[in-house]
Write a structure and sequence with these properties.
It is a single chain. The chain is α/β, with parallel strands linked by helices. It has helices spanning 31-37, 53-58, 60-80, 114-133, 159-168, 188-198, 217-228, 252-258, 266-277, and strands spanning 2-4, 23-25, 43-46, 85-91, 136-142, 144-146, 174-176, 182-183, 185-187, 206-209, 215-216, 235-237. The strands form 5 sheets. It has a 4-stranded parallel sheet with strand order 3-4-5-10, sandwiched between helices. The radius of gyration is 19 Å and the shape is globular.
Amino acid sequence: KILDDLSSGHEHNLLELRPHAEFVCGDIRDPAMLDRLLPGVELVFHLAALPSVVYSVEHPVESLSVNWQGTLALAEAARRHGARRLIFSSSCAVYGPRASGALSEDRRPDPASPYATAKIGAEYLLSNFHTLYGFETVCLRYFNVFGPRQDPDSPYGAVIPLFVKALLDRRQPVIFGDGNQTRDFVPVEQVAWTNLQAATCPPGTIVNVGNGRQTNLWEILRVLGDALGVAPDPRLEPERAGDIRESLADTTLNRAVFGTFDGPDLPASLARTALWFAGRLPEHRFVD
């Protein structure tokens, strides 16, 4: 079963899954909807969110309602209906803008936006559910996820689809800041694989999901431009409130818990993503 309100996605992305899964358009804060869908469910993969730091700064009440209260509603309904485990999509934003170096899971959280606050609050909430009720929970702290099917048309979208769309449209990509800010970009195939591994890892695990490699935005643009045969000419804009300067996952615990993801390296994943958006890779399937 798949529940999504399609606020940042499209139903056509699920076409390959429709013969195997029931899709319901709805809101995780709707208790009647959850009571209808959750009986008989063993595992809940909770990826629902308003996933934007900038949007949360502009719309704090809505962001907290979806990202924190929505998690509470889903966890409680899943527990009541006998689900075994909830796997939560958290975020590296919980570490905050002042964190530097490789960020390990024992680093003290320093959330600096309503989005980050909701994510760390949800982690604590799920830890309570595990400790108090014996309800299994796992929290995956995603770093910068990218891949096919991301929405390139939202002003709050992830940077890679926004860059790719600008290059394909022969427009100037926009960089907020000087472009030397770094991120730990992780392909969506690795995230999907990690979620599947999280179904059987020790309950209560909180773990980073990243590559353990820093890349600045100039390098990202260069790789995408090379893949598409376009020379990037970005326009620089002022930094945005809530954005972080650098981000790097310490992946030591991830490797200990899940092993090593056997997939393409970052440049190859970036190139494949750019070509998918360009229509040159019409089919994209997750790795087994």
